[in-house]
Amino acid sequence: MRPGDGAAWITGASGGIGRAVALKLASEGWTVYATARSADQLEHLASEATGPGRIVPLPGDVTDAAGMVACVERITADGPLALAILNAGVYTPMRAQNFSAQTASKMLSVNLIGVTNALDPVLKAMIAQGTGHLAITASVAGYRGLPDAAVYSATKAGLIAMCEALAMDLVDLGVRISVINPGFVETEATSVNTFDMPFLMQPEDAARRIVEGLKKPGFEIAFPRRFAFILRAIGLLPNRAYIWAVRKMLGWGKG
């Protein structure tokens, strides 16, 4: 997909990776519709856009299904929706000792249900067009369960599986789907982590890798590559060995 093919839409665009991707796409000539709950933050984002493209604030909450339909209707009223990056997500560290159904419900509502709320109208629009590129931000935390991410890992694993299943249908419908699996990116969400985050990168670097990855063939955009490779390799271990290895690395328990 190129800027001339239509507009781009990004959810979770007010901060972190979404914000950086919106700015990167605008700098390359895209008209980017940016969605998040804060209208003020979106207006500020739009004012920072540089290059031949522009950012159009489109406030909305991904947990509001009707609102997501309205967003897509607003975009497609002006022309085709060429690229959609469903990026909104929340993260709260959670282990067995502080497990909370209420906190879990919020993560599930935003990270999984919120994606499906936006996914529904996007798929309808792109399938009707017979073209489009859909990308969903999951995480390397979705490869297998990770410490402090009891529910977060579950939501991201669900997104990865959903993208894989959808790809089997979309290949015949003219719509491309990508799953984006970042490692640790310095954002408001990761600022709550109290452990060392290997290969930590800035949002601008993550955005560059995402935008470049979207231009290339392939299903998954995972980075940093070394970190993703390590997690995939460890993830091949049998369950008991995997749990032992991760606990050992972190110095948890008696090892």
Compose a concise summary of this entry.
The protein has 255 residues and is an alpha/beta fold.
Q: Structural class, please?
A: alpha/beta
- Share of helix among residues? 40-55%
What's the count of strands? 7
Distance between the first and last residues' Cα:
49 Å
Count the helices. How many? 8
Residue ranges: pLDDT <50 for 5 or more in a row?
A: none
Question: Domains counted in the coordinates: how many?
Answer: 1
Structure write-up:
- With 255 residues, this protein is of the alpha/beta class.
- It is 45% helix and 15% strand.
- The chain has one domain (3-250): Rossmann fold (3-Layer(aba) Sandwich), CATH 3.40.50.
- The chain is built from eight helices and seven strands.
- It has a seven-stranded parallel sheet with strand order 3-2-1-4-5-6-7, with helices on both faces.
- Helix 6 (203-214) links the parallel strand 6 and strand 7.
- The longest helix has 29 residues, at 101-129.
- The radius of gyration is 18 Å and the shape is globular.
- The termini are far apart.
List the helices and strands and how they pair.
Blueprint: E1 7-11, H1 16-27, E2 31-35, H2 39-47, E3 54-57, H3 65-76, E4 81-86, H4 101-129, E5 132-137, H5 152-170, E6 175-182, H6 203-214, E7 220-223, H7 225-235, H8 239-250
Parallel strand pairs: 1-2, 1-4, 2-3, 4-5, 5-6, 6-7
Helix pairs in contact: 1-6, 3-4, 4-5
